[in-house]
Amino acid sequence: MIKLDSIFGYLPDYLDGALLTIELGLVSTGLGIVLGLVLALARRSRLRFLNWPTYAYIEFFRTTPPLVQIVWLYYGLPLIFGFDLGAFGAAAVALGLNIAAFLAEIFRAGIAGVDRTQWQAARVLGLGYVDTLRFVILPQAVRNVLPPIGTTIIYLIKDTALASAIGTPELLRVGQLVSNETFRPAEALTVVAIAYFVLTYPVALAFTALERRLSAARG
Amino acid sequence: MAEPLIVVSDLVKRYGADTVLDRVSVTVATGQVMVVIGPSGSGKSTLLRCLARLEQIQRGRIYIGGALASIGIEEPRSASDGAAAADLRHDVGMVFQSYNLFPHLSVLDNITLAPRRVLGMPREEANALAMDLLKRVGLEDKRDVYPARLSGGQQQRAAIARALAMQPRIMLFDEVTSALDPELVGEVLKTMRALAEQGMTMLVVTHEMGFARDVADEVIFMDKGVIVEHSSPERIFDNPAEARTRAFLERLLEREGGKRRSS
Fold first, then answer.
1. B252: which residues sit within 8 A by CB, 6+ positions away?
2. How far apart are CA A180 and CA A185, in angstroms?
3. CB B117 to CB A117 under 8 A?
4. Mean pLDDT, to the nearest integer, of A109-137?
5. Which residues from B are below 8 Å from A117, CB to CB?
6. How far, in Å, CA of B176 to CA of B206, rounded?
7. Cβ contact, residue pair B101, A121, below 8 Å
8. pLDDT-based confidence at residue B262 (cuts at 50, 70, 90)
9. How confident is the model at residue A218 (pLDDT cuts 50, 70, 90)?
10. Which residues of A touch B96 (CB under 8 A)?
11. Given strand B226-231, what is the order of strands in its sheet?
């Protein structure tokens, strides 16, 4: 028998958890997009002192588990550098650093997919590097790689559940606490699963809509 | 001859061990239309790209309006050369064979982007300028259309309008009709002709010999990275001095077979 009071009695707690999941997702997505873009540009650079460390960064963060990265940032950073990000901070930064590596590769592919003549056309018009990127190259690059960007962000939202390992009271952690209290793990995790779906599915829809709108604009 | 607007002196351009331009010197006067002809691989497009500063040059100097615009990286520098090549870029407008419009921007935004960002022109002023230019190239009804919806000829005319929006003193045309369907060539040549009549200084790489004959003040024939012959269009087409020029023109006529005399 499903015990409904083990669900409804805890809805405010789930709501708090969901809000923290959203915050975690937003902060790490923001960090990941900004850093990912910088990394993508550095990776394209012909300067080896930019190119090589970027390569190392990307490969390191792509090939180690995000859970390890979160735990390491939470426990390792205070130990070695003497400063503490807190559970939320460590999780947000670790996830942001992680997704940045994936987004960097996606952005790089997107930028490489824009015809070289677009740079030349911008250049003979006198546009500088930043303006060329912002108004000419990136709008086309992002449009080219919108589906993988969407997938990566959805992965990230789900990966915020890993923050439960260091005690961040996000959705999964709330579910665990509720199930410890009620001894009803099935109900708790059902709520958690549905909540993740409710959070991620609109993101998937938004990306599909965006893709459609942008390809319509191409004429 | 009027005052020289472009002076190219002893320009050398290499790609690796390949010498694409070998000590090319040429002077274009203000208001002059110079047509560059020659077989593919002769370096004529590279010459234009050097003038547009899309290419680094190995030796020589390029002056635009009396100011040093480019200097070969292998040239010994004098103190006065240093800071010169700063902001001359929008003195030179360039139109490409493949149009290279920005596909994600409307025709209007294609034209206004550079004036707004580079010259800091307010949006209304840039829009008004763009509409003027669109009228000049006969596209005033296409302002909100995306490039993919335009024919090749319309795209190329929009590209000409985009280049003109920066009010360049020189326009470079790099085989701008080569990618077009034959029936669309005329409308683009007509636009260029009008521009020449308004006194624009133009350097035109083209295979359109009819255009060269009618519009050019001077014609350069290039082959293998050097200027083989530099003369008036009448001289070059009717009585070329060099055997290589004659051979090139004969080959071209054979291929055309008199099937098309555009515009």
1. B207, B209
2. 8
3. no
4. 95
5. 96, 98, 100
6. 7
7. yes
8. very low
9. low
10. 117, 120-121
11. B92-95, B170-174, B201-205, B33-37, B218-223, B226-231
Q: Tokens 């699963």 map to which residue?
A: A193
Distance between CA B129 and CA A6 in Å, rounded?
A: 68
Whether A126 and B166 lie within 8 Å, measured CB to CB: yes
Measured from the Cβ of residue B145, the count of other Cβ atoms closer than 10 Å reads 16
Digit-coded pLDDT (tens) for B175-227:
999 999 989 999 999 999 999 999 999 999 999 999 999 999 999 999 999 99
CA distance A82 to B29: 69
- Residue B229: band (very low, low, confident or very high) from pLDDT cuts 50, 70, 90: very high
B118 vs A110: CA distance, rounded Å:
25
The percentage of residues in chain A with a pLDDT greater than 90, rounded to a whole number, is: 85
3-state DSSP: chain A helix, strand, coil percent, rounded to 5? 85, 0, 15
Q: Residue B165's closest chain A neighbor by CA?
A: A125
DSSP B221: E
Residue at A35: amino acid letter: L
A127 and B163 in contact by Cβ < 8 A?
Answer: no
In angstroms, the Cα distances linking B108 to B105, B124, B190, B241 are 8, 12, 21, 47
Six token digits for residue A123:
């250049």
pLDDT, one tens digit per residue, over A178-203 is 999 999 999 999 999 999 999 999 99
Q: What percent of chain B has pLDDT over 70?
A: 92
Residue B263 has pLDDT above 70, yes or no: no
CB-nearest to B117 from A118, A127, A218 is A127
ipTM summary value: 0.89
Residue contact B146–A120, C-beta within 8 A: no
Q: Beginning with the edge strand found earlier in the chain, give each strand of the sheet holding B4-15 in spatial order.
A: B18-29, B4-15, B59-64, B67-71
Please tell me whether residue B170 adopts helix, strand or coil conformation. strand
Residues 6+ apart with CB under 8 A from A156: A25, A28, A29, A32, A95, A98, A99
Q: How many residues does chain B have?
A: 263
**B111: Cβ contacts below 8 Å, ≥ 6 apart:** B126, B129, B130, B133, B134, B158, B161, B162, B165
- Using CB atoms, pick whichever of A124, A127, A217 lies closest to residue B52: A124
**Inter-residue contact B96 to B86 (CB < 8 Å):** no
**Under an 8 A CB cutoff, do B104 and A127 touch?**
no
Surface-to-core class of residue B11, CB atoms within 10 Å of its CB (0-12 exposed, 13-18 middle, 19+ buried): buried
Distance, CA of B93 to CA of B169 (rounded, Å): 8
